[in-house]
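Format notes (please read before filing issues)

Several people have asked whether sequences and C-alpha cells are stored in separate files. They are not. Every record keeps both together, in the order shown below: the sequence lines, then the C-alpha cell lines. Line labels are part of the format and must not be stripped during preprocessing.
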Amino acid sequence: MLRKNVSNMDRTCENTMEVDVSFLKTLRGGLKTAELVSVLVAFICFAASSSVGTYLMVPGVETIIALFFFLLYFLKLNKKITMFFWPLIDIFNAVISAIIIFIVCAIAVAGHDNGGTVAGGVFGFIVTILLSVDAFLLFRSVTFNQPASATKTEQEKSVFPKSAN
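Then the structure lines:
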C-alpha cells in the first residue's frame, strides 16, 4: 500500500510546472519583459486618455499575446508543446505586431493633441523597436534545413568555395 502511494506521488510531481528563472536573465527574457511592460504602459496611456477603440484594441491584444509568449518561455511550455515551431510563430508575431503598432501609433501621435494619446503613441514606438529587435535576434538564431550544430566556417565554405591553386 505504501509503494502505491509513493508511485502516485511521483506521477503528480512529474506533472508540475517548471519555472525557468534564468530566462529572465537572458537577452530574450529581458526583451520579452520590456515588450510586455511597454505595451501595457501604452495600453494604460490610451485608456486613460479616453482614446478611440482602435488605439485601445491594438495594444490590448498585443499585451495578451506578449503575456502568452512570456509565460510560454518562462514556464518552459515551449518544451512541452512541441507540435508548433515556436520561434517561427514568435517571429511572425513580432513582425506583424511591429507593423500594426507602428501604423496605429503614427496616426495617434500625428492626429491628436491629447497628452495620454501622444504618450501611448511614444510607448508604442518603443514597443515597435523592441519587437523589431526581438524578430531580428530570433531570425538570426533559427536554422532552416541545417543542423543546429553547424559552425560558421562550414556555412562560409558552402557559400565561398576554396579556389584551386
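For reference, the curators noted about this record: The helical segments are 2-14, 27-48, 53-74, 77-80, 86-111, 115-141, 152-159. Residues 115-141 form the longest helix (27 residues).
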